[in-house]
Design a protein that fits this description.
By secondary structure, the protein is an alpha+beta fold. The chain has one domain: Cytochrome p450 (Orthogonal Bundle). Helices cover about 50% and strands about 10% of the residues. It contains 17 helices and 13 strands. The strands form 4 sheets. The chain has a 6-stranded mixed sheet with strand order 1-2-3-9-6-4. Strands 5-13-10 form a 3-stranded antiparallel sheet. The protein has a two-stranded antiparallel sheet with strand order 7-8. A hairpin with a 2-residue loop joins β7 and β8. α6 packs parallel to α17 and α8 packs across α11. The longest helix is centred in the middle third of the chain and has 31 residues. It is globular, with a radius of gyration of 22 Å. The two termini are about 40 Å apart. Protoporphyrin IX containing FE binds next to α11 and α17.
Amino acid sequence: MNAPMLPPIALKAKPPRRRHDFPAVRGRDLAGVPGRRGLPLLGILPEAVLDPLAFARRMHARYGPVHRFRACGNWNVQLVGAEANRFVLLDEAGNFSAEGGWRPVFGRHFDGGLLLRDGADHQWHRKLVATAFRQEQLQAYLGAFDRNHAALARRWSGDTLDVYELAQQLTFANGYSAFLGRDPALATRQDLLAFRYLMRSAVALVTVPLPGTAEARALWAKGHVRRLIAPLLAAPDDPARTDLLASLCRMRDAGLLDEAEVLAHLTFVIAAAFDALSSATVSTLHYLAADPAWQDAVREELRAAIPDPDGMTLEGVRACDKAEWAVKEALRLNAAAPVLWRRSVRRFAFAGHDFPAGTITGVNPMLTHLLPSLWERPDAYDPGRFSPERSRGRDRFAFVPFGGGAHGCLGANFAYLQVRALLRRLLDRHALVPASAVPPRWHHWPNCRPRGPLPILLRPLS
Ligand code: HEM
């Protein structure tokens, strides 16, 4: 397929990158907001890290949808519910900075990524990165995904697998093809570990790289990623390439990006895709394995819409609504991105409370997706709730696994595509069967994942 040298995008002059200085917010600045301080120094951190969902539920039950807590010396505010999601994510009044909210989490290793940019600078960069997720690219990625999926399905047929490990390997292989334009057979275990370590360091309690800490592993990972990507940036342009790296290099060659920006976008997109998509994949496989009736319904739909998986098309995959509902329901029960952070650049008011400039503000998809006021039988797995009939009247901001507004996920279509394409391959000749009677326990931060292995048998269908 021939891609244009540079996609047609209307760009103004490159805006400067602006970083806000935030005033510290003291407890008395939030005096009317209910909540608690927690332990000296650490605040509520130990309980929030131990079980983020249980912590969020407790805080909501005790203090209501607008509350505060202290973590690592800072007061944080949580705004829970559909209206809160709309208010913060759409941010029509320009109250919030994503860079300020995410800086403590991603700032050390993903500086320059899209979530660490605001305003005109963010829009400018987002337009460029988005050109790698257009229809023609997605169609090209689909072919690469399917080759990877088919190889994995063959290799693991009849085996009992830890599906989190499978999801990570597969997502990484797909990312290697789609983002770097490389044959995933060239990917090493160290490449995968590097991206895993970078993401996990986002929630490191110790940010000094002492030996054996997550931060030390992240520093190694950063060097590894740089050594992996630098030679690829120097490769001559092949106009047939549709991957993200090739697109960004063309923009560099046209003077739109510098080399450091290309590296920052690549690193952030690969990491953002890798962990969140692994999370969505493992949750989808788990819930379908546990619900044979839905598994059969999804299998039938996929076979009917895509009779020949070797000739998978975007239209065929997109026609599979039930498969999409299965992914959505898995993301509702296990939000892959549980809390989204912002920091206020000015004073704002919400739900009768006033908040000063500098307030670290989180919205909580994980909890919103489980609120009994928004969802019938919220803890039940019921993909049919996403059918058009049953979605009617539901607030759009009740379901925000991909966020929304200016920073809404760029990879949502990519994610639905990958998981449905995987299901087409896996379910065609196999049944997913839970291999443990013990239900998995999930850990919800930084992305939702099972605590420990999650074994599923890939049983060949007769
Ligand atoms: C099921 C999988 C995924 C989930 C649940 C997810 C979730 C999210 C969420 C919630 C945000 C917004 C964060 C915020 O507003 O603070 C986001 C942003 C982003 N995601 Fe995803 N994501 C997924 C997969 C992907 C994939 C596959 C890619 C790349 C192909 C990707 C690339 C991005 C990028 C670049 C941003 C930043 C956008 C911006 O700041 O303008 N994500 N994602």
